[in-house]
Design goal:
Blueprint: H1 6-27, H2 33-54, H3 67-109, E1 115-123, E2 131-134, E3 147-150, E4 153-161, E5 166-170, E6 177-182, E7 188-195, E8 198-205, E9 215-218, E10 230-238, E11 245-251, E12 261-265, H4 274-277
Antiparallel strand pairs: 1-2, 1-12, 2-5, 3-4, 3-12, 4-5, 6-7, 6-9, 7-8, 8-11, 9-10, 10-11
Helix pairs in contact: 1-2
C-alpha cells in the first residue's frame, strides 16, 4: 500500500480527531449506542493505518517530524544562510560604489591634478601619532610629500612609502602644520592637530573676524599643499585682549576613524622654500 503524504496524514488526523469528539458527544446522549458502535468499527482500522504509515518515517533522536520534512527544512535553512551572505556582499558593494562616486566627483572638481585611489589597510592605535596605511606604494608612483584627500577634504600627506604600501600622516597629528585661510574673509592662519581627531587654528591676528561656521581651505602658502582644498569648519573661537593672536577649534568633515578610501595627488610637487628663507650669514669685516 502506498504511504500517505505528510499533508494526507495530517488531514486524516484531523478527521480522526473530529470523529473522536463526535464519539465523546454521542457517549453523553441516550439512544446513540448503535451509531457509536458503527463509528468505532470504521475508525479503528483508520487509526491503525495512520500509526503504520507514520512510525517508519520517524528517525531516532528526531523531533518527531517526518524525514522528508526535516530534509526540506535543512535545505531551506541553507538557502536562507546563502541569501543572507549575498545581501551582505551587495550592501558592501553599494557602500564602495558610493565612496568611489564621491571621490570621482572630487576629482572632476579639480581636473588639474592626477589622482590615484588607495584603500586604507591599517591605522595608528596610539593617541600620540595620527596616521593610516594605504595599499599603494612606490610601484604605483607614490612618493613622500604627496597630498592625500578624501571626498570631504584634506586627509594628510604621504610620509613614507615602500614598494606596495605607504604611510599617510593625518592633519590631526600635532606635528603636521597646514597653512589655511578663512574662505569668506581670506584671513590666514595655521591648522594643526590638537589631540586625537581634533584640530586647532593658530596665529590668526587678533583683529581678524572669526566666527563659528567659517570654512577653511588650504592657502598654498609654504608650498606644501595645493591651494583651495577643504580643511575644516570653525566650531568655536577664543579671543583674549592681552594676546597677540586668537585661536579657534576646527572640525574636519572627515571621519578619520572610519576612513576607507582616499585619493592621492600624484602630480603635485611641493616647493622647497628653505633656501630662500635661510638667514644670510654676515660677511666677515
Amino acid at each position: 500500500m502506498r504511504r500517505f503524504s505528510f499533508l494526507g496524514r495530517f488531514s486524516l488526523g484531523l478527521l480522526l480527531l473530529a470523529a473522536a469528539v463526535l464519539l465523546l458527544a454521542l457517549g453523553q446522549r441516550a439512544g446513540a449506542g448503535g451509531l457509536r458502535t458503527a463509528l468505532t468499527r470504521v475508525l479503528t482500522p483508520l487509526q491503525q493505518l495512520v500509526a503504520q504509515q507514520t512510525l517508519p518515517l520517524r528517525q531516532p533522536g528526531s523531533s518527531g517530524a517526518p524525514a522528508p520534512v526535516l530534509t526540506q527544512v535543512a535545505e531551506l535553512q541553507a538557502r536562507v544562510s546563502s541569501l543572507q551572505g549575498e545581501v551582505t556582499r551587495l550592501r558592501e558593494s553599494e557602500s564602495q560604489r558610493l565612496l568611489l562616486a564621491q571621490l570621482l566627483k572630487l576629482a572632476r572638481a579639480n581636473p588639474e591634478y592626477r589622482y590615484l585611489a588607495a584603500q586604507v589597510i591599517g591605522r595608528d592605535v596610539s593617541p600620540y601619532l595620527q596616521y593610516v596605511l594605504v595599499d599603494r606604494g612606490r610601484a604605483d608612483g607614490l612618493l613622500p610629500d604627496m597630498p592625500v584627500l578624501a571626498a570631504d577634504g584634506l586627509v594628510g600627506i604621504v610620509t613614507e612609502a615602500t614598494a606596495s604600501a605607504a604611510k599617510v600622516l593625518l592633519i590631526t597629528d600635532p606635528t603636521l602644520v597646514v597653512n589655511v585661510r578663512v574662505q569668506s574673509s581670506r584671513v590666514e592662519g595655521q591648522l594643526r592637530g590638537s589631540g586625537p581627531g581634533l584640530l586647532r587654528l593658530d596665529f590668526v591676528p587678533l583683529q581678524a573676524e572669526l566666527a563659528a561656521g567659517d570654512q577653511l581651505v588650504t592657502s598654498g602658502i609654504g608650498g606644501k599643499f595645493p591651494p583651495n582644498l577643504q580643511a575644516g569648519t570653525i566650531t568655536s573661537v577664543r579671543r583674549r585682549d592681552y594676546d597677540v593672536f586668537q585661536e579657534a577649534d576646527v572640525q574636519s568633515a572627515i571621519n578619520f576613524a572610519n576612513l576607507e578610501l582616499v585619493l592621492i595627488i600624484t602630480n603635485f610637487t611641493p616647493l622647497d622654500l628653505a633656501p630662500l628663507l635661510a638667514t644670510p650669514v654676515p660677511a666677515a669685516p
